[in-house]
Amino acid sequence: MFTSHQAPLRTIVTLSLLLALALFAPVAHSASWQEVSDDLTRMNQAGLSRADMIEQLLQQDEQSLQHTLSQLKSQLKTEKRSLGKVQQQLTALTKTEQQLQRELAAEQDEIEAIQGTVLGAAKRVNDLFEHSPLGPELASQRQLVDTIMEKKTFPGMYEIRGLTALCNLYREKSAQVRLYDGDFFAGDGQLLTGEIARTGALGAVYRHDDTLGYLQANSTGRELVAVAGQLPTAVLNHIDHYLDGDQHHLPIDISGGAVFLQLTQSKDLKQWLKSGGFLVWPILAIGVIALILAAERLLFFLRIRANSDDILHTFTNLVDQDQLDQCRDFSEKKNSYPTCQILTSCFKQLGQSQEILDNALEEALLKQMPRFERFLPTMAMFAAIAPLLGLLGTVTGMISTFQVITVFGTGDPKMMSGGISEALITTQVGLSVAIPIMLLHHLFERRVDVLIGDLEEKGTAFKITLMKKGGGDGQTAISHE
Asked: Is the pTM of this model over 0.90?
C-alpha cells in the first residue's frame, strides 16, 4: 500500500511506462504480446525499484532537513537570547556614552576656559613687555609667549610653567636697577652703543658721547629706541649726574609713555598757531597793534614824569616876589610839562575873579585829557575784540569737528579731541592777547587818573596863590562870593 507521498511517484512510473509503450509501439508489432508484457513487467519492476530508491533518498533528505530545521530553530532561540542581552548592553552603553559626552562637554568648557585664561595671560604679558624696557632684555624668553599665542590647541604644562617662570623673572628684574653698556636705536634709525641705566620696568636712560635722553621699547618691544623730542635741561642734568654716580635719584615716566608721546607730538609756535585757523592771524595783528600803542603810551608817560612839586614851588616863589617876567620866561621854558601848562593857564588869568580862574583851570585840564587818554579807548576796544575773535574761531572749529563726526561718526575719540583742541586754540590766543591789553589799559588809566589828580591839585594850589597875590597893577585879589 502506498503512502501519501508514494502515490504521485507511482503515477509518474505508470505514465512513464505508457510513454515507453507508445514509443516502442512499432517494435511491439513484430514481437509477441507476451514478450511485450514481460518487458513491461520488468520495466515496471525496475521503475518501482528506482522509485523506492528515490523515495528512500527523499526520506533521508526530509529527515536531514528536519534535523537542520530543528538545529536552526534552536540556534535562532539562542541568537534571540543573545540579541536581547546585546540590546541590553547596547542600551547600557548608550546611557554610558551620553553620560561621558556630558562629562566631556563640561570638561571641554573647562578646557576652553583654561585655554582662554592662559592665552589672555600670555597676551597681557606680551603687552607688558611691549611697553617695558625689560622687553628687549628678555627677548629670547618671550618666544614662549609667541608660541602660546600662535597655537590653536590647548597649551601644555610645559608652556604654562614657562609662562609662570617668565612672569616671576619679570617681577624679579622689575625690582632691580641695572647699569650696563648696550645697543639702542637713535631717532634717525642709527644703531648706537652707549651707557644705559634701566630702573626696573619703569624706564631707561642713555648717554652716548654728549647725547642724553630716555629710552623706550619699540612697537614690538624687542628693541630700545631713543625718545624723540627735546627734554628740559634740568632733566638732562639729572640723567648726567645719575650716570656719573653723583646722585641717586632719577626722573622717571610714570604715565606709561604719555609724556614721551607728548614730546614727539609737540609743535613749535608756528605750527601751533597755524593749527588754530585763519582767525589766529587777525588776533595776533590786534596784539601787535595794541603793543605798539602801549609802547607809545609808555614813552609818553615816561616823558612827562616831571617834578610837579618843584614847578609849583618855582611858580609860587616868582609870583610872591612879583617876578612876573621871570615867571613867564620859566613857563615858556618848561611849556612841554603838563604841570607847567596848567599853571601857565592860571597865571594868564592873574587878577581875575575866582570863577574865571576856576574856568581857566578846568579848561586847561580838559585840554590835557585828550593827550593823556590818547589810544586808551582803542586799546579797550582791542581787549574786547580779541576774545570775541577767539570765540568765533572756536565756534568755526567746532562746526568743522561736528561735520567730521557726521561723516565718520564718533568711533575715534582722538580725532574728535584733536579737532576740539585745535578749535580752542583761537580762544586761547584771543585771551592771551586780550588779558595783557586789559592790564596795560588799566595801568594807563590809573596813570591818567594820578596825573589829572596831581595837575588839579597843583592848579588849585597855584590858583589860591594868585588869588592872594592879586593882579599886576597892585590890586588885591577879587573875590566874588
From this structure: no
